[in-house]
Amino acid sequence: MNSRLLDEFRAVVGERGLISSAEELHTYECDGLTNFRVMPQAVLLPTTTEQVQGIVRACQRERIPFVARGSGTGLSGGALPVENGIVISLARMNRILEVDFENARVLVEPGVINLDVTGRVAPKQFFYAPDPSSQSVCSIGGNVAENSGGAHCLKYGFTTTHVLGLEVVLPDGSLVHLGGKALETPGYDLTGVFVGSEGTLGIATKVILRVVKRPECIRTLLAAFPSTNEAGAAVSDIIAAGMLPAAIEMMDNLAIQAAEAAVHANYPDCGGLLLVELDGPTAEVEALMEEVGAISRKNGAWEIRVAQTEAERAVVWKGRKAAFAAMGRISPNYIVQDGVIPRTALPRVMDEIARLSKETGLRVANVFHAGDGNLHPLVLYDRRIAGQEAAAEALSMRILELCLEAGGSITGEHGVGEEKKRMMPKMFSEPDLDTMQRVRCAFDPGQLANPTKVFPTPRLCGEKPGEYVPHPLEASGIAERF
Ligand SMILES: Cc1cc2nc3c(=O)[nH]c(=O)nc-3n(C[C@H](O)[C@H](O)[C@H](O)COP(=O)(O)OP(=O)(O)OC[C@H]3O[C@@H](n4cnc5c(N)ncnc54)[C@H](O)[C@@H]3O)c2cc1C
């Protein structure tokens, strides 16, 4: 990057806000998906919205692509730098600006850590519901961009349900406000469009969040089944009984082994472990817990425990939340996959994953948000063995195809990013992709915001396949193509 531009960036963010030395840039060459790496030209760490605007305007003028970054825990390569581009890290914009308990609203900067929002409102018995397992390190800006989920999203909804408004720096440097503190605003739901857009529509610089009152009673049950098939049948029966648990999570034996090795959660050694959490008024929770226990026993659970204290409950969740990172205990390398299937397809898909695992000789551990049908198969491999990484990648993509064949999706919460863009045409038709591309072009006609992500074959804005035919409005001079 030329020194004139570096000087300009330095003038915007100050000496401490610019990283340009090769050794420091290495920290930013990947996100949580470490098998993709690109060195950025520079990393900028703004502290204000105006600084973000200043950086983006310079990028627009010089046609430099930029990638927003929160905490870099993404698992699909969303924050992976792009060739000849810069990274804009929002980590230093980490203030909770306003807490409005009466209206249950919190205004935050994008670099605020997810769990810190709950930490701030907990004294008044509120919490921020979307709880990715990475919640102690991931940022609200990253959560917004990925529409992140978590164990409690079954009942409370994903990030999109809890983001009411946004301040966004568009890719031309202008500032817009989408949504607001009220639940509904007129016009297009552009907040909804932005949430889940993976950094391709601009940079969120402020976020209005909805927080939720803590329920009177929370109970967590742990049930051990012979296999994930019986556990899956219990999940279907619980939902069919009309209950909406706060969370239903499942782990297979390999995932249990890893979690036990890492955090000693005292899980039973079984083929399929179910964690069911109910919350609400005490009388209701206790009655429903009896019913969950009965349904579990009917489906073959041989051990059922209900956490008796808050400390016991915390240990149960610690095991589940540590499950991804715990894979390092049982395998040198692993790929965390993220796909969705209809709940009823669970036994069929699990059997097929087991068959593919046997066929390829690669172990697959399974941890999932069972209530949502959101699978997280972890494909274990050893990079030092020639060919294993490629085989693991191929297997993880084949698992996504299985999800599609079952009527599901290629991602439940980790996003498309770099990793899954080639899967997009398998899930969406050409007109679907074209429509998404037009939305992107409306926000970012110059395609500078996280270009090369999400879409398999980037097209220039305004470009359509085939011979160019001007629209009649364009031909008559009423509308202009941008
Ligand atoms: C151990 C582990 C467990 C995880 N568990 C879960 C889970 O349970 N559920 C889940 O959903 N995810 C989970 N994740 C994935 C990851 O933590 C989430 O995707 C998280 O939201 C990423 O936040 P981040 O701050 O790290 O974002 P980053 O990784 O830095 O960025 C993610 C995306 O957001 C964009 N972005 C970041 N900030 C902004 C901004 N201010 N404006 C616009 N775009 C922005 C980036 O360009 C990128 O595309 C897990 C990851 C790990 C490592």
Can you put this structure into words, describing what you see?
This protein has 482 residues and is an alpha+beta fold. It contains 18 helices and 19 strands. Strands 12, 13, 14, 15, 16, 17, 18 and 19 form an eight-stranded antiparallel sheet that branches. A five-stranded antiparallel sheet has the order 5-6-10-8-9. Strand 18 and strand 19 form a beta hairpin. Helix 9 (228-240) crosses helix 11 (282-298) and helix 14 runs antiparallel to helix 15 (388-405). The longest helix has 18 residues, at 388-405. The structure holds flavin-adenine dinucleotide (FAD). Flavin-adenine dinucleotide binds at residues 31-32, 67-75, 78-79, 90, 110, 132-134, 138-139, 141-143, 145-146, 148-150, 198-199, 203-204, 324-325, 413-414, 450.
Secondary structure: elements and pairs:
Elements: H1 3-13, E1 18-19, H2 22-25, E2 42-44, H3 49-62, E3 66-69, E4 86-89, E5 96-100, E6 105-108, H4 114-121, E7 126-127, H5 140-146, H6 153-156, H7 159-162, E8 163-169, E9 175-179, H8 190-194, E10 203-210, E11 212-213, E12 217-225, H9 228-240, E13 247-252, H10 253-263, E14 272-280, H11 282-298, E15 303-306, H12 310-321, H13 323-326, E16 333-336, E17 339-340, H14 346-360, E18 364-369, E19 374-381, H15 388-405, H16 424-427, H17 430-443, H18 472-475
Parallel strand pairs: 2-4, 3-4
Antiparallel strand pairs: 1-2, 5-6, 6-10, 7-11, 8-9, 8-10, 12-14, 12-15, 13-14, 13-18, 16-19, 17-19, 18-19
Helix pairs in contact: 1-3, 9-11, 10-12, 14-15
The structure holds flavin-adenine dinucleotide (FAD).
